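Hi R.,

As promised on Friday, here is the backbone we talked about, encoded as structure tokens. Could you run it through your design pipeline when you get a chance and send me back a sequence?
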């Protein structure tokens, strides 16, 4: 029972992460996720996406990062959020580059997914993959300006229950949560689309 609930909790967390990024009231969603909020129309700096390869990813992502505004460029919480596919391409480009010192890269934890992060070379920008982004889009800005909220005023904000239905020989699982996202100062973000 404990293993089943742990597995369901992980799947539930995945769905929450996807919703925090992709939810959009314009398409019937309950709130606007990060992708619906961090847009050129809302004031973010827009940059056209280019296809990443292991030959060009460092140059292209470096160009994206160079569009970060001076008002936040000094911050230590700058993040470039991207899809896992683009993240892997960026890592392959870094491994392929003979100009980068990667002796300290991958202390063994990122191979099992515990440490999926990479500081972009010669910058203060952390590159992170998210399952919430599936295409070539990237969102770059201060992570401290992004809020993911979970309603915990009452104790029913997140509810995960499981029980065995003997008559049907099935384990039934129910989960519910109240959550949403917000972004402060959208104009300090770069959106690559």
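Update: got your reply. Pasting your designed sequence below so it's all in one thread:
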């Amino acid at each position: 029972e404990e293993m089943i609930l742990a597995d369901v909790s992980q799947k539930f967390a995945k769905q929450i992460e996807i919703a925090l990024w992709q939810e959009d009231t314009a398409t019937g969603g309950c709130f606007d996720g990060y992708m619906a909020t961090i847009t050129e129309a809302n004031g973010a700096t827009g940059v056209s996406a280019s296809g990443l390869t292991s030959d060009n990813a460092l140059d292209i992502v470096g160009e994206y990062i160079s569009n970060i505004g001076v008002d936040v460029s000094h911050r230590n919480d700058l993040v470039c959020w991207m899809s896992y596919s683009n993240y892997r391409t960026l890592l392959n480009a870094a491994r392929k580059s003979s100009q980068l010192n990667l002796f300290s890269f991958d202390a063994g934890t990122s191979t099992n997914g515990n440490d999926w992060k990479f500081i972009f070379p010669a910058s203060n920008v952390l590159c992170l993959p998210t399952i919430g982004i599936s295409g070539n889009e990237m969102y770059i800005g201060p992570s401290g300006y992004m809020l993911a909220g979970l309603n915990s005023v009452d104790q029913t904000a997140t509810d995960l229950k499981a029980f065995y239905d003997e008559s049907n020989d099935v384990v039934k699982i129910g989960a519910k949560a109240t959550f949403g996202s917000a972004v402060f100062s959208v104009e300090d973000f770069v959106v690559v689309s």
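One thing I noticed while checking it: Strands lie at 45-47, 78-82, 118-119, 125-129, 138-142, 146-150, 158-165, 170-177, 179-183, 190-192.

Thanks again,
M.
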